[in-house]
Amino acid sequence: MLTRVGSSEKNSYGDTVAVAFAFSPGMEPFKHRQTYRLDDGVSQYLPFRLMRNPSFPAPTVAPAANSYLGLLRDVLSGMGSLNKAIPPRWFYDQEGSKLFEDITRLPQYYPTRCERTILSTYIREIVPLLGHNKVLVEFGAGSATKTSVLLGNALVSEYIAIDISGEFLRESIASLQAQFPHIPMRPVEADFLRPMELPHTVLQRGGIGFFPGSTLGNLSEAAAVNLLRTFGDALGHDSILLLGVDLLKDEAILLPAYDDPQGVTARFNLNLLHRINRELGGDIPVSAFKHEVRWNEGLSRIEMHLRARYDVQFRVADCSFSMREGETIHTENSYKYTVMEYDRLLD
Ligand code: AVI
Questions:
Q1: Closest C-alpha among 310, 91, 337, 77 to residue 191
Q2: What is the tens place of the pLDDT at every residue in 24-78?
Q3: CA angle 17, 21, 24 (to 5 degrees)
Q4: Ligand 1, atom 12: nearest CA belongs to which residue?
Q5: What is the residue with the minimal CA distance to atom 6 of ligand 1?
Q6: Which of 83, 104, 132, 194 is a good FRET partner for 147, with 20 to 30 A between their CA atoms?
Q7: Which residues pair with 36 in a beta bridge?
Q8: Which of these, 232, 249, 250, 254, lies nearest to 241 by C-alpha position?
Q9: Crossing angle, helix 251-258 and helix 110-130, to 10 degrees?
């Protein structure tokens, strides 16, 4: 069932959902909210939020792309820690981006399907809220498959697609451009987690930030709040953010979504080791590792790890590492929010 969540409706967990808030001007970026969610009976639902942004200064820091040094720093520091971990943004090289697209088509991976349904069902209601002739800015655009729903219905003056995986992004934008030849499009290879300066047209005309896919859920709460502030800064005065976040649901739905029997998510996770070998001259024996998914109830998050099947030693960029059987490299968190927690995050 699709619902627009009003200010006093109950969700299936019984808590009240509030959608309109007033913040101190200039203190918090996003003021007015509207939520759309999908509840298909097995608590598979996911909201979109529309938020309006009051006045904000624009930062001047340049974006950092998918750099060798960034990968080297994160791998050496993450592998040198007591609890080994590598940030999930390094999943998305050309191969990883393709594997992620395969994940989004898996029957077990519900978020992409749910979001598309919400967007296309409510597009007539969403479009007037977006205004006219603003610049659409998608953060982490990837294959930009949901964007065509917005581009085909909203009146936007330009489309800027930001993604860390440049080659993959350029290919996706080329096919989107063929579909919408009248809309100027700009692919920008950048890490949207860093403060960024967007083309001046965004500040002139106002921006519509588009951040679907529940990528916000891959960040800790503090990092998620920082990111929303970064978006507010980059989009500037009188902008809007359309945001998709996955909600808490049953473990029986969550686990197969991240550990599909077809092994696609396992290949996605293990590709990180192949990438390290390829790009940092590593000799990690990839077959010594297996994909592991855990539901961390206390922290309300899915965790992905790479578990050593046996004691293993390897080198990366002339540094030696050893891991004991059963030891893991923590590669991703995917937080699942209740509507109340999500609202608190936005507050
Ligand atoms: C990109 N991100 C929101 C996905 C998620 O669901 O956390 C990444 C992913 N990892 C495994 N499957 C999908």
A1: 91
A2: 223 344 555 677 776 654 434 455 666 655 443 333 233 445 589 999 999 999 9
A3: 150
A4: 258
A5: 334
A6: 194
A7: 4, 48
A8: 232
A9: 100
Stated as kind and residue range, the H or E segment containing 304 is strand 301-308
Return the CA Rg of the chain.
20
- What pLDDT is attached to residue 196? 80
How remote is the CA of residue 56 from the centroid of ligand 1, in Å? Answer: 30
Supply the DSSP symbol for 81: S
CA-based diameter of the chain, in Å? 59
Half-sphere CA count of 27, side-chain side, radius 13 A? 5
Query: Burial level of 276, CB count in 10 A (0-12/13-18/19+)?
Result: buried
Strands 312-316 and 301-308: unpaired
pTM of the model: 0.84
Which pLDDT value is given to residue 113? 92
**Residue 59: count of CB within 10 angstroms of its CB:** 14
Residues with CB under 6 A from ligand 1: 103, 111, 213-215, 217-218, 258, 265, 332, 334
pLDDT band at 21 (very low <50, low <70, confident <90, very high): very low
